[in-house]
Amino acid sequence: MSSFLKFSAFLLITFTITLSTACSKDNPGPGGCAANFNWTVELQDEANVLSNAAQAYAQDPTTENCNTYKDAYQDYLDAAEDIDFCVPAADQAAYDAAIEDARDSLDDLQC
Predict the structure, then answer these.
(1) pLDDT tens, residue by residue, 52-102
(2) Which of 3, 21, 87, 100 has the most crowded Cβ, counting Cβ within 10 A?
(3) Where is the signal peptide (predicted)?
(4) Which of 22, 72, 16 is nearest to 49 (CA)?
């Protein structure tokens, strides 16, 4: 569980950084994303729910908390995929691989 939570935190930080810098006024994404689109704000609700669920599960590793954590992580990854249209083409493969790795790790978590 501990290594999974560390991996989750790493992905959360990586996605947030990647998405906050993915599109700028000088470099719009391939999907034509708005230059003023704030990725951090876009994923903030999901990130907050995921963070709270991870903390609850780490403090009390019950089946209920595990399922809540898995659901929150799934929602976060879905939201990250929903806005991937603005990831620069040069970063797209790494972005997709990170989401796929996270999904695989999530699938491996048994509650």
Answers:
(1) 999 999 999 999 999 999 999 999 999 988 877 777 777 788 888 988 999
(2) 87
(3) 1-22
(4) 72
Q: For residues 87 and 29, is the Cβ–Cβ distance under 8 A?
A: yes
CB 63 within 8 A of CB 1: no
Bridge partners of 8? none
Specify the amino acid at residue 29. Answer: G
Tokens 């230059």 found at: 35
The closest alpha carbon to 80, from 43, 111, 48, belongs to 43
Q: What is the pLDDT of residue 38?
A: 63
> pTM of this prediction?
0.67
Which residues make Cβ contacts (< 8 Å) with residue 2, sequence separation at least 6?
Answer: 58
